[in-house]
Amino acid sequence: MIRELKSMCCSLYDEEMFTQMEWHVLNTLEWMIGHPTVDSWLQLALLEGPEYEDMTVEHMSWYICEMALYHKEFVSVKPSAMARASLALSRDILGCPEMDTYGQVDSELMLSLSRQLNQPSSVLARKYAAPHLSRVSEVLRRFLLQQAAMSQCHVTPPTPPAEPATNQKSMQQHDVYSTPQKVYGQHVINGYLTPPITPEGEYFGPGNGNEIKPYQTSAPRCPITPTPQTQMQYSQQQQYQQQPYQQDIVMQ
């Protein structure tokens, strides 16, 4: 085609001059001709933000993009999406303020990239450890160590399971001898329970119906209240004093 243009112009211009004229027209129109690679999209993104003067953000973005080349899951990702995600992730690592254009970034892509940060290639890490590349590989390594230490601080050690109280109580009962206790019913009819008395004297007489009965499992309906010893002695003395008086009345 250039030869046709040259013949049309009566060979007044060389072929190289047509090429220079084409570049001059494209520069005047501010057009960029080339393959849409990640680097080209990254350069466009850097021109729009304040990172243009900060070379550390650009070098970190390069490092993350080259790290993604080792994994096949990022082959089908569009260069524009990869450039925005790597730039956003670089700003987060370096502690830069967020941009308004981050709403267009795919969060799942950023998460996938962040999972690959802890396993970079040794050759790639040595390459980006150079001073002219801002030593971004060392910066990223320190950032990952700091994040791991913070995650371990938030994890609390598990507490051992406590033994049930019933098991401890049963073990104590098996080891220590105890006095058997009387089991009362669930419902008491009236009043409070009074302690049973120990019968003495004529209470054990035969034929009185007061023989010792087997052990009862329920509380008696009318519990017996013990009578004080002093009151019993006083009633017996009055009974002895009244007997002679009654005999005198009968004889008269």
Automatic annotation (TrEMBL):
User: Where are the stretches annotated Disordered?
Assistant: 200-252
Q: Where is the Cyclin C-terminal domain?
A: 36-142
Compositional bias (Low complexity): 227-252
Lineage top rank: taxon: Eukaryota
Pfam families to which the protein is assigned, alphabetical: Cyclin_C
Listed name of the protein: Cyclin C-terminal domain-containing protein
Which Gene3D superfamilies does its entry note?
Cyclin-like (1.10.472.10)
